[in-house]
UniProtKB/TrEMBL annotation:
Residues 13-56 form the Homologous-pairing protein 2 winged helix domain. This is Homologous-pairing protein 2 winged helix domain-containing protein. Its main location: nucleus. The lineage of its organism: Eukaryota, Fungi, Dikarya, Basidiomycota, Wallemiomycotina. GO terms for molecular function: double-stranded DNA binding; recombinase activator activity. GO terms for biological process: homologous chromosome pairing at meiosis; meiotic joint molecule formation; meiotic strand invasion involved in reciprocal meiotic recombination. It comes from Wallemia ichthyophaga.
Amino acid sequence: MRELFGCSTEPAIGDISTNLGQSVSKLATQKVLVACAERGVITSKAYGKQTVFVANQNDDTNAISPEDLAALVENNDHLRKEHQSLNEQIAHYNKGKCTWK
């Protein structure tokens, strides 16, 4: 979220409401965040009168299976080789030595 708001601190409810174009009030934003925290979608931590809402750090719902990971790695290797081949063709073309197939 820090990257989204371009600041070094966690955004406050007012920051989130402002970022939504103020189409959602601060009170409605807070109610939604509290409801999400109660459902376990995000985590809330109370510090005195202030409550901080943060993303869940140990969320395994986006975990990828080993088979899918292996397929992605293989595809990535193939694309790297193809990229290298195309770069070599471009280099030969730029030198005037290219014979296009």
